[in-house]
Amino acid sequence: MNDILSDDESTAAGRRGSCDFGPAADEGVGPGPLAAPVRGSPRAEEEGKAVSPRCACVKCPVSFPAPAGDVDCLPRPGVVLVADDNVLNRFVLRIFLNKIGVPMVEVNEGAQAVEEVRRQIGRESPYSIRLIFTSLRMLVMDGIVTTRKIRQLEADAAGERAIPIVGTTTYCDTIVTNECLKVGMQEVLLLPLSLGCIEKFVKVYLGDGF
């Protein structure tokens, strides 16, 4: 991520589509992201219309246990967990989440994210993780391994709700995307993200009353 979007740029990005991911595939820059969300993507269903080709958002086909009761009944305070070893990426997400009033907990490697979830399952955490953004390309433990370990923890804990996990990356082809979905991510997004993109994902996965 090279630039932090201003409010005006974020608004403009929102007019172009949910996310602004730089040059579109038809501009001849590399293989580019997937052209559009897979049919049935939460955001596509919410908006009821086609999503910008600049968005690389896909829905996970794997079924996970539904949350026990309505999301508003989950323990408070709820937070979004961000796992990324790039300090600038975490900084930008912190700005965006602060703007929409969503508390954030950040870690700089996948193993720390797994430990945060383990503490939550063991009722040792002072907050409730409601959504996870994880980088795919962390050095120590990447986002795919991180997601696999988190899903295993949830599977081992009978009745534990599955936390929505969104992967973020600067490049993602079909093979990587399919691997992300296979291990249990709900979405894969290309960086840089926009304020409008993050706000919509919070509403899709957490509702308006977060």
Describe the structure.
- It is a single chain.
- The chain is an alpha/beta fold and 210 residues long.
- The chain has a domain at 58-65 and 74-206: Rossmann fold.
- The chain has 7 helices and 5 strands; from the N terminus they run ααβαβαβαβαβα.
- It has helices at 7-16, 42-47, 87-99, 110-121, 143-156, 174-183, 195-206; strands spanning 78-83, 104-107, 128-135, 165-169, 187-190.
- The chain has a 5-stranded parallel sheet with strand order 2-1-3-4-5, with helices on both faces.
- α5 (143-156) links the parallel β3 (128-135) and β4.
- α4 packs parallel to α5.
- It is globular, with a radius of gyration of 16 Å.
- The protein starts with 6 loop residues before the first helix and ends with a helix.
Biggest pleated-sheet summary: 5 strands, parallel
Low-confidence stretches: 1-75
What topology, given as strand order, has the largest sheet? 2-1-3-4-5
CATH architecture of the domain at 58-65 and 74-206: 3-Layer(aba) Sandwich
Taken from the alpha-carbon principal axes, the silhouette is globular
From N to C, what is the helix and strand string? HHEHEHEHEHEH
Rg to the nearest angstrom? 16 Å
Structural class: alpha/beta
Could you tell me the strand content as a percent range?
5-15%
What is the CATH superfamily label of the domain at 58-65 and 74-206? Response regulator
